[in-house]
Amino acid sequence: MMFLLVLFGVLALIAILVLAKTIRIVPQARAGIVERFGKYRATLSPGLNMVTPFIDRVRYVIDMREQVVSFPPAPVITEDNLVLGIDTVIYFQVTDPVAATYEIANYISAIEQLTMTTLRNVVGGMTLEQSLTSREEINRGLSAVLDEATGRWGVRVGRVEIKSIDPPPSIKDAMEKQMRADRDKRALILTAEGERQSAILTAEGNKQSAILNAEGYRESLILNAQGEREAAILKAQGEGQAILTVFQSIHDGAPDQALLAYQYLQMLPKIADGQANKLWVIPSEITKALEGLGSAIHEVGGIPLKTEGVKHRVDMGSSEPLEAGGSGALASAEESVQQALREAQAAAPADIPPTEPPAPPAQEPPTQ
């Protein structure tokens, strides 16, 4: 009985072992490579698979997803003999698990080495400036070479990216100085352009201001000239009107020779007035004026005329009847003439002989 129990236990263990060797579960996005006696037999798809126990063996399980591999920086020499450290990132995917298993021993290492050699070939034909500014060109060159070389390995390279390009420390320091100098240069240029634009705008503003001031000054001069012209016209018109008025007044007053002579004698002391007058010349016409004044005395008011018993006198254009008392007015007029002559002689220089006033004509007796 004990023997049977041990036998059943051994058979159960063998069955479990056989079942474990027969059933294979492949995860999603994986592919299993089955070998029989060391030779490729089949490729297991994701899910539950049955294999012959102790004869078939799952050698590899290949990841069919797109993978990302970052390679460490590799030294690359440029065309101008500068060493750059460039690290890359590769995006690839296994499309044929059988080829990836049997065509290449380690496709990841192979892709890394191929990337390094291709990168040296591409960057070796570029200068430092081109290498730093031509990342897209480098990526396209690497992608074309890698995709062509890894196709027979059952691997498809999706994209190749340059993670960083590190120049030597001395070159990096020189580049930083150059960039700083370029920035300073651009700053100075921008500052100079700003100052130039500011000067231009200031000059234009001053020009416009000067033009406006000149125009305003010209308008002011024009207005002042117009005002002065109108004022002169109005003044001339006023003076002309005044002259016409005075002339009309004189014409209306009808002055005679006696009045003009008398006014002439009254102006002589005013002409001689003043401390600066050292010499005073009496014109020769004063004798004629005095003679005319003396002859006119008999014609002014107070001198009796031959009328029919009525005396008249002319007093500045007015005619009034006067009785026998006109002799007092005549004496007053003669006294005024004598006073004017005395004032003229007193104002005359000592070397000019005084002029004797003409003797008045004999008065006719008044008519009774």
Describe the structure.
This is SPFH/Band 7/PHB domain protein. Residues 21-179 form the Band domain. Keywords: Membrane, Transmembrane, Transmembrane helix. Belongs to the band 7/mec-2 family. This protein has 368 residues and is an alpha+beta fold. The strands form four sheets. Strands 6, 7, 8 and 9 form a four-stranded antiparallel β-sheet that branches. Strands 3-2-5 form a three-stranded antiparallel β-sheet. The protein is 55% helix and 20% strand. The N and C termini lie far apart (219 Å). Helix 3 packs across helix 5 and helix 7 packs across helix 8. It contains nine helices and eleven strands. The radius of gyration is 72 Å and the shape is rod-shaped. The protein folds into four domains: 22-63, no CATH class; 66-167, Band 7 domain (Tetrahydropterin Synthase, Chain A, 2-Layer Sandwich); 170-253; 257-347, no CATH class. It has helices spanning 2-22, 97-102, 107-124, 128-133, 135-150, 169-253, 257-272, 285-297, 327-347; strands spanning 23-26, 30-36, 39-44, 47-50, 56-63, 66-70, 74-77, 83-94, 155-166, 311-315, 318-322.
